[in-house]
Specification:
The protein is of the alpha+beta class. It is built from nine helices and six strands. Helix 4 packs antiparallel against helix 7, helix 5 runs antiparallel to helix 6 and helix 8 packs antiparallel against helix 9.
Amino acid sequence: MGRTSAGEDRRMRSMTGFGQGQAVASGISVQVEISSVNRKNLDVHFSLPRGMSALESRCQKLISETCVRGRVQAKVLIETVGESEAPVTLNEDKAREWLKKLNTFAEAEGLVPVTNVMDVLRFPRVLSEAESTGEESPDIWPTLEEALRSALAELAEMRKVEGAHLQKVLFELCAELEALVEEVLPLLPEAREELSERIKQAVVGLGDLSPEMQNRVVQEIALQAERSDVQEEVDRLAGHLQQMRDKLGQTEAVGRALDFICQELARELNTLSVKASRADINRLALAGKETVEKIREQVQNVE
């Protein structure tokens, strides 16, 4: 997949998980919360404090190194710790402007002028805290990266634990479908024998037909016999199930491949249920389709 670093554990993972991380440096605390749910492709949504949007691409790159698929939502909270609070700035020009305008208004209206400095400090943009700017954002990146990596590690662990559960369930469902296919196999010779007997009985009644008509009927019987033989579908089912087992044991993201195999299994079972000449084969095909739907539901959560 091109995203797995050397030595990284990439056993089957779910697309559902949650992680938290925190790092503190230079009087700044960075907290990251990250969650993910299933989604066909990787869809990242990042919430960064104002003035730090320049760091979003770096954050998304880190996430893409851990997550291949899923809707990932991350929230970053940055706070000052200890005595490193943002300094307060007094905008003296703005204070004088407010004071002059208000006292002029008070004099014109016969009101008491502003005499208390606390009244002036309540006016907009007179007092302000220093804010982070775009130029300052990169300075916080090492701390943000540490917190994000910590959150991603916790997220990956949860996705791995859930993935192990999904793998177990999928192996069980795969075995369930294999057992149904095994039940179909001994029925195939009996189905062919019954079909052969019906053909023989049909041929007996051809004596009263013209040679041309007899030939047309024989061709039609042969065509129907070929259409009723489901050996090919059963063989392909077995092959797809082996492919699924192989994928379940691989060390890469296999969700898309498993989804494709589910489509192929459903296609073969649909054909089998239509072509089956016996009720017991049709019943097993329908049971198989139900099992494939269960597999598909689980696969939707596999990365």
